[in-house]
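pls design
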C-alpha cells in the first residue's frame, strides 16, 4: 500500500471516530480490497461447501465495523487487526450456531505450521482452535493476539510487531511459544473428548 494511502486511511479513521460519517464513505473503497484479501484467507481455511462466501464475510464484517464508532483507531494496521478479529469471530459464531462441533463429529487433524497458513484444505476445527486460543488469552493475552494477527489476520512479523508495539523478535518468540502451547492444548482436548 502506498504511503499516502496509509496516511489517508489513518486520517479517515480518526475523522470517522470523531463522528464524520462521510469519512466512512471515503474509507471503505480504500480498504475494501484488503478486507477481501483477509476474508479470502479465512475462507480458504473453511470447508469447500461452507455457506458463507468471501463477499458475505466482508459484508458481515463491514456491518459490525460501522457500529464500532467507539473504537479509537490508531492507524490502518490497527483497523485491519480489528477487522481480522471480527472475521474470526463471525466464522466461529457461525460454526457454533450451526452445531458443527456436536460430540466431536467430523474431527480432523489441525496444523499450526507456518507453511500451512494459507491452505487450500479446509480448517477442520475452528471452534476448537478458538476455545484453545481463548484459554491461551486467559493467561497470556499478548501471545493469543500474536496468533490471531499472524494465523487469522495473515499479518507479517513486522505488521504484528507494529500493531502490538513490540519488536519483531518478540513476535517471533511469542509465535513459536504460542504455537507449541496451542498444539499441546488441542492434543490434550482431543484426548478428553468422548
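designed seq:
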Amino acid at each position: 500500500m502506498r504511503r499516502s494511502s496509509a496516511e489517508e486511511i489513518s486520517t479517515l479513521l480518526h475523522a470517522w471516530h470523531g463522528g464524520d460519517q462521510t469519512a466512512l464513505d471515503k474509507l471503505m473503497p480504500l480498504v475494501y480490497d484488503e478486507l477481501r484479501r483477509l476474508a479470502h484467507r479465512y475462507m480458504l481455511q473453511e470447508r469447500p461447501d461452507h455457506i458463507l462466501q468471501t463477499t458475505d464475510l466482508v459484508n458481515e464484517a463491514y456491518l459490525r465495523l460501522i457500529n464500532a464508532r467507539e473504537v479509537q483507531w490508531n492507524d490502518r494496521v490497527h483497523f485491519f487487526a480489528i477487522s481480522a478479529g471480527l472475521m474470526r469471530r463471525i466464522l466461529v459464531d457461525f460454526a457454533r450456531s450451526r452445531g458443527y462441533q456436536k460430540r466431536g463429529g467430523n474431527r480432523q487433524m489441525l496444523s499450526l505450521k507456518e507453511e500451512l497458513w494459507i491452505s487450500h484444505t479446509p480448517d477442520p476445527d475452528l471452534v476448537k482452535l478458538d476455545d484453545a486460543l481463548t484459554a491461551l488469552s486467559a493467561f497470556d493475552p499478548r501471545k493469543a493476539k500474536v496468533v490471531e494477527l499472524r494465523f487469522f489476520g495473515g499479518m507479517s512479523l513486522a505488521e504484528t510487531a507494529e500493531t502490538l508495539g513490540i519488536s519483531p523478535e518478540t513476535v517471533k518468540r511469542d509465535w513459536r511459544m504460542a504455537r507449541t502451547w496451542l498444539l499441546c492444548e488441542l492434543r490434550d482436548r482431543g484426548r478428553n473428548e468422548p
